[in-house]
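Sample intake — Cobalamin biosynthesis protein CbiX
Collected from: Isoptericola sediminis
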Amino acid sequence: MTVPTLLAISHGTSSATGAAAVAGLVDAVTDRLAGTVPVRAGFVDVQEPDVPTCLAALRETSTVLVPLLLSAGFHVHVDLREDVEGAVAAGQQVALAGALGPDDRLVDLLERRLADAGLAAGDVVVLAAAGSSDARAVADCERTGELLAARTGHPVRVGYLANATPTLRDVVAAVREEHPGARVATASYLIAPGYFQTLAERAGGDTTSAPLLLPEGPAPEELVEIVVDRYRAAR
């Protein structure tokens, strides 16, 4: 039986640094599965190749599409689902894996990024999420905030950078009003550097952690493991 190709689909970005960071994750997954699973990459938006182009190139093999997205919102439930269903209707063998989060290993990584950013006793954490018009994605982010609070022992609120409320800037302002004198530590729940990371850094927190993928260095083991696990679960 042919081993399904792992098709890693990220959102896409106009940031060269962000694109390189995501490519590094795909390379790390490729290395982890070397000799056992073919790995290809594509994008929901901004970059090429897009998902239909990727699936067309893989029409002669079975495929597991793994979204490199932290929560399951419109892109997972609608865009990617429609792409997969269209390919299946045309006779391809394609399965759609789950989003990367929520996952305890993402919380491990968030905790490490916060520590690197100088999280201190008494700080209030605001989780900076991209945001989505899909309530299921918002629920995923809120769950991640709950897990991070339980892990760190710090109060954690969630703020969004687009397409959902409350906004990150509003949450930071509210935390300052509710906890006068406390530092606000913004935890970046973004997969890579780029425009949203810049917005998070400018939202008024006292410190902002780096995104999950760094501009340099190897991809975090946690993310590599999650991508591989999502692939295997959907095979």
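Post-analysis note: The CA atoms of residues 59 and 91 lie 8 Å apart.
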